[in-house]
Amino acid sequence: SVYENSPIPSTYMNSPSKMSSAEEVNSVYENSPIQSKKMPDKQQQSVVPKKRMDASVWLKKSQPKVRSAKTSGVSSSTIKAYGASTNRSLSSADASFKTKGRGGNSSNKPSRRSSLSTPKNNRASKSQPMALAVQREKQQRHKVNAEADSNETRTCLDKRTARLRYGKDFKADVLQHRQQHPRLNNGTNHSDKAGSQIHDRSLNGVSIVVRKRPIFDFEQSRGDYDVVSIDNSSSAMDTCIIDNCVMHPDMKTKLVKPLFFPAQAAFDEHCSNDDIYKNIAEPLVNSTVKEGVVATLLLYGQTGCGKSYTMSGIEERTAKGIFQAIASLRAANDDGTNNDDAGQVTLQFVELSGNKEIKDLLCAKSKEVVKLLDDEDGICRLLNAKSIDITSPEHLLQKIAEGKSRRATEATDKNGVSSRSHACCQIRITGSKGVLTLIDLAGSERRGDSLYHSQERQKESAEINASLFALKECVRARASNSSRVPFRNHNLTRILRESFERDGARLCVIAAVSPNATDTEHSVETLRFATAIVGTDSQIKEGETRTVVPAMKTFESRDILSPKQWDNAHLKRFLAHKKMDRVKLTNKHDGKVLMKMSVQQMRTQLFDDKDSELAKRLFDILRLENDKIAKIQRADRIKLSKARKGQS
Prior knowledge:
With 648 residues, the protein is α+β, with helices and mostly antiparallel strands. Helices cover 41% and strands 15% of the residues. The chain contains 22 helices and 18 strands. Strands 1, 5, 6, 7, 8, 11, 14, 15 and 16 form a 9-stranded mixed sheet that branches. A hairpin with a 6-residue loop joins strand 2 (228-231) and strand 3 (238-247). The longest helix is centred in the C-terminal third of the chain and has 36 residues, at 612-647.
């Protein structure tokens, strides 16, 4: 009521500039009834400050603070472009996370918010977060650091929490196992094999390839570690090994259970996109152009494991490879009947969201709905989908980039730019009737990763998992040479009808896995899915369980000796440090001899029976030093005993 009756609101509202100067505010405040109005002592102590703030300082503090969004991107010399998309989402969300002000006034200061304050709608707008993963990542990182700093007594832990808490012991065991087997993750990545040698291992034209991405810096900073190993030393099949770090039911013993997954080819974190294209995609491109084969390349894995990165590298090299193969095919034509239509390339690019909606990615705004039509020849046609004639590799990459820019991506709890749909890029060669289909599947998710999803995101996850299940059944039927392939269960499998039914069709599934220990269940399920496709799931083996022995806690030796163990030189240094220069020592005197002497013996032998006070002081100094060192040694013995009990 005092403030409402004061001239401050009327002066502020009637002034043209809202506030002309700090002196004017001071004058208005001095003449207002706020100064003359006296309040009770108790309220005056809690509300009125002891020292009135000057108006210029008050105006300066009342202005909104515009904080700059400082980004903290993930950088690593090993992964450079590999995690570019993840880094962008992490940086933007990091910025939004850091720009949140604390707000509010201090508890010991009165609130001065009035009509002079800047309206909320005029304040600096905050950037919208792009990735939910960063906020979850920060919370998890702070939680791990807090548990490491505090004496956590909770012993009943879930798998992921236990892997992070006892990460040092698990990581040491995995590294020791790799040192004993140098062939693991040696970086060869089939550099000694020809391009078509891996596809010769396929089963009825179906092959499985495993690619492991490198671990990121921000994952290591939270305590995560690498548990996936690749062994491609065998000439028949490669092996992907996952060290499943778990706890014994007593929640004290740490166990490592290795799982061995067979694959036609496996690539570790040292491989490049050139290695993937040379060994996997290039044979499919040459077969499509020269032999008219229907070839399909699928990328499968959890969200955030590098599927889109791998597909981008394959698309870039495939565009050049197609036209190089066409040029070589035309050059090899010796009969002079070189037909330009024989190398005509057409492109169709669609997006599948759920089992009903199909979107044409080559059209910015298309009102017509894309539908599927099955011909009598066993070919599934994309009605109302735009088909573009491609003239060069650059033209092909340009159209693919335009289509990918229209693809649906959303921020999830696991990945800031998670693909929420299946992208199907279909390239047809007119002359040879070959078809090359590149499909970047949406990332699979487990229930723990979709816990914080909205209802729409959860519905998308359910549709994604349903389409992947239908795809698995069709590929499994193709690999087992079944007479009936259930391709009608989903639109995705209908588009791939030629790959399942046409003779000589070749299909390759690249299973991308993350190396993180916290994603062990994801990686295991991805590889089980991949091996079940070709029918090699019966060859999955469980290795011998290893018991993790924690590293013995070593205490640095303090190299301290009790006075009884001092020699003559040590005793002289000690007396010089204590400024006991008047002590007459001989070469026969050491710490053991002096500790046996009484005060009277010290005065007689070391001070010529003259200075009893110095003798008493020397006696006390030696006993005090002996008690001090004995206390330190006793504490070290207790620590060592506790460490040994923990080892047992």
